[in-house]
Design brief:
The chain has about 350 residues and is an all-alpha fold. The protein has 2 domains: about 20-105, no CATH class; about 110-340, Growth Hormone, Chain: A (Up-down Bundle), CATH 1.20.1250.20. The chain is built from 10 helices and 4 strands. It has helices spanning about 1-10, 25-35, 85-90, 100-125, 130-135, 155-180, 190-220, 235-260, 265-295, 315-340; strands at about 140, 140-145, 145, 230. A hairpin with a 2-residue loop joins strand 2 (about 140-145) and strand 3 (about 145). Helix 4 (about 100-125) packs parallel to helix 9. The chain is elongated and about 85 Å long.
């Protein structure tokens, strides 16, 4: 800790602080208000007639100008110059007239939203790893006379991340670079897609392991007993390992995608949005657990996830998450296919 504090104070004078260029949330609100105010205006076919500053650089500090795109043309109304503004030459009211760059900033965020939303399901799958611990508690945790704490197997998720980073960087990227001709090897969208696929695979493996565990519980007449089943806890390693690999592809791909595709002046906001999926995923998995528990315990049934997992069906819950991940993966493929990358001047 002392070294960390010393490093912080040593590096502080060297850090270049960039002055804020205005709130991106304010600029987005300005576009929406201006669009609403000019809702009855017609958008000219010639995009050069839309308002933009004549300067080479954007009026937004720390941002480059963005080229006009034809999607979401209703938002272009915010950049339509009215007759009054044209006669008076007063273009200073940003709540009535926005630049093309401002409008394009909002368009970019809207285009990125579906990609962002698909990350919530992955984060929810990743957040349910506490159920892996509960699953491990009713498995054989012994190695001779030594017993392995079930929670310690989450270490394999970390090991997976540590192993996959050099494998990805030194092996997969060079191979992908030769095959695709892309300098990065995989595009950001491809990385995220691979991560989504791995989430489907990881939850499927977890469901199969749980199915086998429940089968052993029935064969050994342990259904009504909250005891461990003679199935080694090390069978959980693949599901931890696969989700760890998915974490590398999805979370890193998300961060790079949002940083690369966001407007220059919105990179901090968009990077924060990519991390927001983690929080949303935690809320989502809590909601799913609540709904599943409520539905499956109707009529006095033990439900899928009772206190005694031997009498439940945790495998059904894992299959449910695998199905949600598969559905999410299909939606992601569609969103990635139609996504149009930003254009900077």
């Amino acid at each position: 800790m002392g070294i960390a504090i010393a490093s912080f104070f040593f590096g502080t004078p060297l850090y270049r602080i960039q002055n804020p260029g205005g709130s991106p949330l304010t600029r987005m609100c300005q576009v929406l208000v201006a669009t609403f105010h000019k809702w009855n205006f017609s958008v000219p076919d010639d995009s050069t007639l839309l308002y933009e500053t004549p300067d080479k650089s954007s009026t937004i500090e720390g941002s480059r100008k963005l080229l006009h795109t034809d999607e979401l043309r209703c938002l272009d109304k915010a950049a339509v110059v009215s007759d009054t503004e044209s006669k008076t030459g007063d273009y200073s009211n940003a709540w009535r007239l926005c630049t093309v760059t401002q409008v394009e900033e909002l368009k970019i965020l809207i285009r990125m939203f579906p990609i962002w939303a698909t990350g919530i399901i992955f984060a929810a799958v990743y957040a349910q790893m506490t159920l892996f611990v509960e699953q491990g508690m009713v498995m054989d945790t012994s190695i001779g006379s030594f017993r392995i704490p079930p929670a310690s197997l989450s270490l394999f998720d970390i090991i997976s991340v540590i192993l996959w980073v050099p494998v990805y960087d030194r092996i997969l990227i060079p191979i992908a670079r030769r095959l695709t001709g892309n300098e990065r090897g995989f595009s950001n969208l491809q990385r995220i897609g691979i991560g989504h696929f791995l989430s489907v695979l990881g939850m499927s493996v977890a469901a199969i392991v749980e199915f086998k565990r429940l089968q052993l519980a029935r064969d050994r007449s342990l259904v009504d007993e909250a005891v461990a089943v003679p199935l080694s806890i090390f069978w959980q390693i693949p599901q931890y390992f696969i989700l760890g690999a998915g974490e590398i592809f999805t979370f890193i791909g998300n961060l790079e995608f949002f940083y690369d595709q966001s407007p220059t002046a919105m990179r901090s906001l968009c990077s924060a949005l990519s991390l927001l999926t983690v929080a949303m995923g935690n809320y989502l998995i809590s909601f799913i657990l609540t709904v599943v528990t409520f539905i499956t315990t109707q009529g006095g049934k033990p439900g899928w996830i009772p206190n005694n997992l031997n009498s439940g069906h945790l495998d059904y819950f894992f299959w449910l998450l695998a199905a949600l991940s598969c559905w999410n993966f299909v939606i992601y493929l569609f969103c990635a296919k139609i996504y149009k990358f930003k254009k900077s001047s």
